[in-house]
Amino acid sequence: MRIDIISIFPEYFSPLDVSLIGKARARGILDIRLHQLRDWTHDVHRTVDDTPYGGGPGMVMKPEPWGEAIDAVIADVPEGVQNAQSAQHGQSAEDAQHAQDAEGAEGAARRESAGEDGAAGRAAAPRLIVPTPSGRLFTQEMAVELAAEPWLLFACGRYEGIDARVMLEYGRRLRLDEVSIGDYVLAGGEVAALVMIEAIGRLLPGVLGNARSVADDSFAPGAMRNLLEGPVYTKPPVWRGHAVPEILLSGHHGKIAAWRHEQAVLRTARNRPDLAARNSASTS
Length: 284
Ligand code: SAM
Prior knowledge:
Layout: E1 2-7, H1 19-26, E2 31-36, E3 49-50, E4 60-61, H2 63-75, H3 79-89, H4 93-113, H5 118-123, E5 127-137, H6 140-147, E6 151-155, H7 164-173, E7 175-180, H8 189-201, H9 212-216, E8 238-239, E9 242-243, H10 253-271, H11 273-283
Parallel strand pairs: 1-2, 1-6, 5-6, 5-7
Antiparallel strand pairs: 3-4, 8-9
Helix pairs in contact: 2-4, 3-4, 6-8, 10-11
This protein binds S-adenosylmethionine.
S-adenosylmethionine binds at residues 131-134, 156-158, 160-161, 180-182, 184-189, 192.
């Protein structure tokens, strides 16, 4: 999977060099490319914000640098996707590149949104994710959906957000999702993008040592959909007088699975009554 990130603070993304995601990058499972939004400004101060129309406090991110930055990123179609397109159209990779250069990103995106390129055409443009507190709530279900995409582009806003015309423009040309990571307000989209990239990245084949652990996670599609995972234990069997529940030492897989499910239901009822209510609604 390729992920492009546009931000005025690319250095915010250094955590993507470590742990699971860092290893996935080193192994070529994840290709993450950082872009400085200010590289697409043309004034001496590299200005990306201006005062809001209609008045009010704070600053709004200007549309021009965002437009140039997103156009540049989407024009840089990944190698594998180009080849898939050329094969489909019976062209050489070089011919496909020339045709694409002549047409420009805008034409390609227009064809893409008109559905002219089929699956390869859709894959040839990234899915654009704009973190914002006013977006749809990010969930495990959305992480699973996004993990199936070949190419994501995160546009990280700051200040009072990005001029709405940017979303209007790219909502027409790309598949665009405005996504919130929760009901609180951060200072910028960088941390939200990090959260989503980690949730998506760990779902990619080969990233986790044991793929089964994903299916047992809280919120995992399937049996855990509206459930929180219950408590987990490791050795020693007794620590500071606290013993591991007997059932987990029994070796009886059926009874252990039933106990874990019971614990998940109890924990969900205690910590997330909203999820528990969804469970009882779906079973009634
Ligand atoms: N004035 C905006 C509002 O009330 O909706 C908040 C802007 S916030 C200070 C600046 C940026 O932080 C946003 O453009 C967005 O990129 C990011 N952000 C803040 N909270 C977020 C959240 N809960 N989820 C995703 N992104 C968030």
